[in-house]
Q: What sequence folds into this?
């Protein structure tokens, strides 16, 4: 009998056990967070602070950006968003991580059936990057497919990880940001810092604000 057939998750045609089943490797996942409607936790700032506590249960928080007030993109007739990015060191495989993020969104009142694309939402949690992995599956694409075109993602991501590489383009986050906003004035109204006691108070998360 072939050894591969004894291993759970072995693939039938290559004798190698499927890595996701047999090996759990620590990776750094960058999670994009956004909200522009109140939730059961309160205003968007409070929702993001409460969601950060949930994320901390999925791994180790290595860094978190400040909060940013951002202009809506796509569908403009809605309140400004509050956005942030967190770096999470985790052994959780990406599909499981996505399922946990979607469950946290639902906990804070996200209702996709009633939503419109790019429309108002109580909470949005996205996997922006997962180590240097590239994933293209039904319902899961990593790096996030719209990473390079969203200032509200790139500005907070650049705050905590300017040198990290987007494996799809081979460009660092700081380069992607420079491409999106060649003129630094363009970014100032679209995305700016937001002071929030709720967010600042999360010292127990293990990472202060800004770079780790
Ligand atoms: P967006 O976050 O781009 O504004 P949505 O929050 O409405 O869009 O997400 C729509 C779907 O995108 C989700 O149901 C999820 O399955 C899928 N998706 C694909 N890749 C990712 C990813 N990397 N992170 C989060 N969701 C993703
Ligand atoms: Mg999303």
A:
């Amino acid at each position: 009998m072939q050894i591969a057939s004894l291993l759970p998750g072995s693939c039938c045609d290559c004798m190698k056990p499927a890595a996701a089943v047999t090996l759990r490797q620590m990776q750094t996942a960058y999670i994009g967070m956004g909200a522009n409607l109140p939730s059961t936790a309160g205003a968007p700032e409070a929702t993001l602070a409460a969601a950060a506590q949930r994320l901390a249960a999925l791994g180790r928080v290595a860094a978190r950006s400040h909060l940013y007030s951002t202009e809506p993109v796509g569908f403009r007739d809605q309140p400004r968003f509050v956005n942030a990015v967190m770096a999470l060191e985790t052994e959780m495989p990406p599909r499981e991580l996505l399922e946990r993020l979607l469950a946290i969104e639902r906990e804070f009142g996200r209702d996709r059936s009633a939503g419109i694309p790019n429309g108002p939402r109580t909470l949005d949690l996205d996997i922006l990057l997962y180590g240097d992995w590239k994933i293209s599956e039904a319902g899961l694409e990593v790096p996030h497919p719209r990473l390079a075109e969203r200032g509200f993602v790139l500005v907070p991501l650049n705050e905590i990880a300017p040198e990290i590489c987007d494996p799809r383009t081979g460009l660092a986050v700081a380069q992607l940001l420079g491409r999106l906003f060649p003129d630094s004035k363009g970014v100032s109204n679209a995305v700016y810092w937001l002071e929030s006691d709720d967010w600042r108070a999360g010292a127990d998360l293990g990472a202060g604000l800004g770079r780790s």
Remarks:
- Residues 124, 126 surround magnesium ion (ligand 2) (CB under 6 Å).
